[in-house]
Amino acid sequence: MSKARGLADLGNVYNDGALSNRNKVINGAMQVAQRGTSSAGFTTGGYYTIDRFKTNNDTMGTHTLTQAADGPDGFTSSYKIEVTTADASPAAADNLGFDYRFEGQDLQLLKKGLASAESVTLSFWVKSSTTGTYNLEFDHYDGSRHVVTDYTVDTAATWEYKTITFVGDTSGAITNSNAGAARLIWWLGAGTNFTSGTRATSWATTVNANKAVGNVNLADTIGNYFQITGVQLEVGDTATPFEHRSYGQELALCQRYYQVLPVDSGSDFLLCSRFYDTSGTPYASYMLPVDTRAIPTLAQSGVWISTAGYGGTPKLSATNTRYIRLGGYASVPANSTVYLSGGVITIDAEL
């Protein structure tokens, strides 16, 4: 027989913060890779493979990026960077690493710039071929302030759990908007422009020379690699267990920044149809599954085909964050359709 429970019976309930929505990092378990699971020959910065994590490379070797089917217990995927062309002697401006970028409106709970500014704790799992000291930077770039801490990879080729707490910053409020405001930067190597100063171990005006002091050079040997998963940023000075969200939740959160239509690049995607008795230019609006962060940039690949045999490239445009407009060929005959064969439409609103 069940018994009603009073407040006195609930003393063991966790009440030191949110039970859900603790993790401010999207795709921290590296589950979503809309751009593909592997990208070889990477020599410049950009978004590749894993969603929401932007790789940085300024002439510091060549690398392969993958969504590796490897992780510590509880994780099936990780983000892997592997060196394919080495750079053992980086020039002053060379740098290598990756970052995670936040919208300003998502960090207002940090109370940055106030006397009551909150500390935040970052936790993650890392595995690398290269042991030694690495730098982790919390960069408030719309306010030109940063703080840097270091961590150590102790044992090669072994998953290690790291936690880092950044104290609250009582200077420099974060702009409350959908624009990029702050980022976490994992440094993997750099030239003297980023290593010749003194590590910024407390919040201060951004100085490039203080960002990657004493960092290992992952790029110094072909075959070196760095893997990461289980990335979590939460308010407070204590790391809690990783907040696992479903794949569907993570995908929808990622689609705010990037989407691919159709998901299956081998299928056909209907652009628009004309079912009238007279010729003309058909248009259609396609409602995106998730509103994008801002009006997106559109790109297309594949071959556009008209059932009436017309050639050319239909026009794609976006004037808001919910719909993209699909414009067909001019003077398409009645009862004909236009579709994309063997290609994709990408919707990009990344930070």
Describe this entry's structure for a reader.
- By secondary structure, this protein is mainly β.
- The chain has two domains: 218 residues, Jelly Rolls (Sandwich), CATH 2.60.120.260; 90 residues, Immunoglobulin-like, CATH 2.60.40.
- Helix content is 4%, strand content 41%.
- The protein contains two helices and 20 strands.
- The strands form four sheets. Strands 1, 2, 3, 4, 5, 6, 7, 8, 9, 10 and 11 form an eleven-stranded antiparallel beta sheet that branches. It has a three-stranded antiparallel beta sheet with strand order 12-20-15, with no helix packed on it.
Shape: globular
- The structure class reads mainly beta
Mean pLDDT: 90
- Oligomeric composition of the shown chains: single chain
CA radius of gyration is: 24 Å
CATH superfamily of the largest domain: Galactose-binding domain-like
Largest sheet: 11 strands, antiparallel
Instruction: Please report the first level of CATH classification, the CATH class of the largest domain.
Output: Mainly Beta
> Which strand-content bin applies to the residues?
35-45%
| Domains, number | 2
Secondary-structure element sequence?
Answer: EEEEEEEEEHEEHEEEEEEEEE
The count of DSSP E runs of length 2 or more, i.e. the number of strands, is: 20
The helical percent reads under 10%
Q: What are the segments in which pLDDT stays under 50 over at least 5 consecutive residues?
A: 1-15
Can you tag this structure with a few keywords?
2 helices; Jelly Rolls; Immunoglobulin-like; 351 residues; single chain; 2 domains; mainly beta; three-stranded antiparallel sheet
